[in-house]
UniProtKB/TrEMBL annotation, chain A:
Belongs to the aldehyde dehydrogenase family. This is Aldehyde dehydrogenase family protein. It holds the Pfam family Aldedh. The keyword Oxidoreductase applies. Keywords: Oxidoreductase. Gene3D superfamilies: Aldehyde Dehydrogenase, Chain A, domain 1 (3.40.605.10), Aldehyde Dehydrogenase, Chain A, domain 2 (3.40.309.10). It comes from Mesorhizobium liriopis. The active site is at E266.
Amino acid sequence: MNVQQFFDSMDYGPAPEADSAAREWLARHDNRFGHFIDGKFKPLKEGEGFDTFEPATGKILARIANGTATDVDEAVAAARAAQEPWAKLSGHGRARHLYALARMVQRHGRLLAVLEAIDNGKPVRETRDIDVPLVARHFYHHAGWAQLQDAEFAGYSPLGVVGQIIPWNFPLLMLAWKIAPALALGNTVVLKPAEYTSLTALLFAELATEAGLPAGVLNVVTGGGETGEAIVDHPGIDKIAFTGSTEVGRRIRERTAGSGKRLTLELGGKSPFIVFEDADLDAAVEGVVDAIWFNQGQVCCAGSRILVQEGIAPIFLSRLKKRMETLRVGQPLDKAIDMGAIVDPVQLARIRELVELGVKEGATLFQTEAGVPETGSFFPPTLLTDVHPAATVAREEIFGPVAVAMTFRTPDEAVMLANNSRYGLAASIWSETIGLALDIAPKLAAGVVWVNATNLFDAGVGFGGYRESGFGREGGREGAYEYLKADAWAKRKPREELPAQPEPKSSASGFGLPVLDRTAKLFIGGKQARPDGNGSRVVVGADGTVLGEVGEGNRKDIRNAVEAARKAEGWSRASTHNRAQILYYLAENLSARGPEFAARIARLTGVGSSEAEREVEAVISRLFTYGAYADKFDGAVHSPPLRGLALAINEPLGTVGVIAPDEMPLLSLVSLVAPLIAMGNRTVVVPSARYPLIATDLYQLFETSDLPAGVVNIVTGEPKALVKDLASHDDLDGLWVFGGKDLSATAERLSVGNLKRMLVDHGLQTDWLDPASGEGRLFLHHAVQVKNIWIPYGD
Amino acid sequence: MQLQAVAPRDEKERSVPAHGGNAPRNEGMPLDLGWLGGVRVNLSAAERRVAGLPGRRTVKKDAQAAWLLKAITCIDLTTLSGDDTEGRVRRLCAKAVTPVRHDLLEALGMSERGITTGAVCVYHRFVAAAVDALQGSGVPVAAVSTAFPAGLAPHDVKLREIEASVADGASEIDIVITREHVLTGNWQALYDEMRDFRAACGAAHVKAILATGDLKTLRNVARASLVCMMAGADFIKTSTGKEGVNATPLVTLVMLRAIRDYHERTGSKVGYKPAGGISTAKDVLNYQILMKEELGRPWLEPDLFRVGASSLLSDIERQLEHHVTGRYSAFNRHAAG
């Protein structure tokens, strides 16, 4: 077109970004890349590796090494060798390195942005304006954590060697989210980029080395699923950090079960985008564009489920459709497009299938006439309306530019529909009424909530999911803890075997007055309940005396207990003052009956009376500690770079199972249950199998201390069996397992159903009397999950 | 009426009538307070939209030259200074008729397209001189009336001023609203005032200046926009150029969305005129992109888009010369206005 034609049509015309520097970099490597290990590229042998493609054209970009177990060994060895000197470098020394990485990213911003667009297919506008600036910001922010490590994380040490597996949707940004905190806090890294998009990670590693990063600190092993498995299984790795699909996340949870590896998973989502009738509708329409047509919808936290209040649904949807008409899909390097290419034809086919299925299941399809390029891997912006919550497209993550819309009538119903999902990554609320928006935000099961905004990210604000969207946080202080271990726990030793219990002595007392039979029942929903199986187990004292019997709980008892815990949701909403009062009241009532509990401990465990009294005193103190923390373990107010705030709120996990160990049976049990209930969780507790009477004695204490029904449920029985029932119960949000090593492994392995938040001791014995290891923030961090609520403001 | 010269020679190519042409005027409607009450504007979201758009859309090379030429046809070439004289106004009119050097238009293949500015905009005192200077050019004269810029003269004096400007040949009248009506939420008073202004204009098209810099909140801007449209404004305009803050992309977004809303509900197309502070080619391209994205193609033509500017034209001329020659240009290479 010439000037005259443009003058008449007023079309945009092409606006290509130059890609010569990126192509030259590829050519300099002969378009062939080995792994980047110990500061240099390994040679890629003839005939080895796999091809990586340019999604917009389908052309081969480069040939890349396919990592084997041997390659992973080599990378882990390099990382291990580098870890000690890296950790020993002062925080300031590491801060300088991270600062240099940030500067390096800015210096090479254009090259990184263009290469990312070519390799992934996303618009260069996004890589230039969003990905690369966020990457630089992440390194700057974490240079700060390195600088402040000694001051801010006293008592914590780096984990060691971290294996990190990242997805293809934000290859460079996810690299930054992973390696910046790991390196800042003294860990070294073996990173596997996604098979589709390895190039920017390789370029980054090369540039980082040029910028002075010591060899072995960052190693990049490329490859597919098998390479990932080799990393996950590697015994020399201390932690796995994974971002990707929920399906793969589950497999990683299973494979690492019992290994003692730390694990964080950032997985899929089906995030709600809730539009209330008092929203700025034009703003909300634009929000949908940023929610689902950002990065071709290949965003784990994409606002893919539009929930719109019924009265405004027609006008909102009509405005949305009109807005869709102006979206432009085209070549990633064209600076005037909204959407580029889908990463791979395999993904494209999946999106197509799901959309077809959606229509088959009754949805109404809307796509614009504008069309997409004929060659390459493209899919148009798509809206499915008349979608019902049971539809596949309303439940499954499509991971493409497809929004589904449904309506709601009231705020309650909006919350119900929003939470009607296995996922819980993010949510977006649109309303101009502050009272409404801030009332809804805490009710949503999501790790990130944006008020009148969507897809905002910042290095200082934690990001991560609830439910099957994974666990762990990336960014901010909460993200830093994921790369540290508490020294107080690091020195724990394997638990010593307790001596076998004596044979029960006959309690027959001839014709004298017999002992009044006391068979403790289970404690479920505030009531003593007979066990479902109608069986019991004998409890003997240290000297073999039969001290009583307790119920033999089974799977159905666990079910009932979890149900009771679920129902007791009022506890999670109770004021922190109220929760504190009840913890103090428990301490008060225990104190009143202290000698009785001490005597019970002595008879059960055989310890001397002074030791038993010391345990009771420690329990009273522990209850006070958590009464104190109940209204003091606050969240934080972040100041991300915008006019507004991000509120990091500590929310309870919900329902949490607890398997208590045998040692110090009362103190250990209270040390696990008290932090959980102080933070508003409702618990299902399996007490020590040897000394369950110490737990059943608590029933009366609970009843006299106004503890609401269902907050603590106790199921006595065999932990080896009950741990399975707890771990595989999908309505239990978390599980804490303290006891034998095998219990931890079983619990982790079976927790994959709903990806529970786990805290297990791997058979290591905690010193419960020492406050440094037995109480406090260590436990509280695990008793909550952080929700970040972004609140931009202004008028 | 007079704008045929701006319209293309080949009517098949483009038949968008310029302002003052055949486009149906906005007849207005009764004041609808319920509609106003439902107006919601989220500042942060609006800021994100205007901040993100320049990164999402751009025009390069021939397309950019064409867009800049189009921008020229939308300029209300303006002089509104206390020291204006007839000589100054006549010089401006000459520039309005020949805004770009002929050799440049030739090189761009646009010499036959009759490129002029959209109008010349002056105080009432110079309307007659401007009408005379522009005789036969097809460039209309716009007058700022109603006690510009503060608009605080007696109501009937303002109506008299409009009538006088129309009598002198102004075919477009830029009125200023009484900001007090907006700041106190007296929508009925604002509506009545605007209705009277519109009636006084007769056949002349009326542009309502909201003085958005005085209104402060985007909600005020949105509501004032709607009231003026309900009362029959043909255009809504941001500023007099004399407020502390003049046209910004942010208030533009809000006003364009009000225009879109009004169009959706009534079918009437109302034009938009940002004024003040738009002085570079890059600025005006961003406004054009906003128009196209938020309102669509019809709002890129002078019957629905004007830019009130004085120094913008000379920057556009330099950019056009750069496009033609590949060399950066200087101000002294282009005729003064």
